[in-house]
Amino acid sequence: MVKTGAYGLIRVVYNVYGTRLLGLTRWPEILVGLAVLSIVLGSSVAILQDDIKRRLAYSTIGQMGYILLGVGLMTEWALFGAVFHMVGHAFMKTALFLSAGAMIHRTHQRSVSRLEGIGYHMPWTLGAFTLAALGMVGLPPLMGFISKWELSLGALDAGRPYLVLVLLASSLMTGVYYFPIIISGYLGRDLQAGAAGAASGEPPPAMLVPTVLLAVFTLVFALLPASGPYGLAEASARILWQGGGR
């Protein structure tokens, strides 16, 4: 659902007005400024959240800033990065929310600090969370890396190299609010021991299998450049650019 607004914005920019007309106004600068604000503010607030679902929700605000940035830069590279990030974010964030939901379902805990040692009881769930989170950070060779790489190329193509630093800084901030969950989940004290530990454990296959598959797809679709999401994003960006980007 959060992609609906991004889709509408892309269609308005490229199919209603076109970048040539918007380039005569201040709207590209406004969109880029709002994108940077969204990235920084969303990531900053996410770092402060102890509730895991609230942390993921505020993370989405920052991630939507990447898409807005790709639209505001108005270059073909940036547009491809924005479209591919829409696809990649759908896989990565869905896997994260499903993993978090499974942890809450089994442990009845929403606080990040209370999920310490969860990897002892839910290794597959935390593994899926870890893979998706690393993709959100933008580590290669996951989907998040490809979209941020394309956005960086778009920033350079637009003559705004300082935005590459913004993307790097945002990746560091993303790591700040995801890595503590991963590290404490695998290496922290087993707070789920005893009765709580007996109540935890992996969720039913109907919950676990889709979660793991979504996380694995974030790797598979990045390793196979000719895969469906990559090719569709590339074709969509090319069509949009040819229609309204010249």
Explain how this protein is built.
The chain is mostly helical and 246 residues long. The protein has eleven helices and no strands. It is elongated, with a radius of gyration of 19 Å.
Helix and strand layout, with pairings?
Blueprint (H helix, E strand, L loop, with lengths): L1 H16 L1 H4 L4 H22 L3 H22 L2 H32 L15 H15 L5 H15 L4 H26 L7 H5 L5 H19 L4 H17 L2
Helix pairs in contact: 1-4, 1-11, 3-4, 3-8, 4-5, 4-7, 4-8, 5-6, 5-7, 5-10, 5-11, 6-8, 6-10, 7-8
State the low-pLDDT regions, or none.
Answer: none
Cα(first) to Cα(last) distance is 29 Å
* Count of individual helical segments: 11
The Cα radius of gyration reads 19 Å
Give me the secondary-structure category: mainly alpha
> Shape, please?
elongated
- Estimate what percentage of residues fall within beta strands: under 5%
Order of helices and strands: HHHHHHHHHHH
**Major sheet details:** none
Strand runs, count? 0
Share of helical residues: over 70%
Structural domain count: 1
Rounded mean pLDDT score = 90
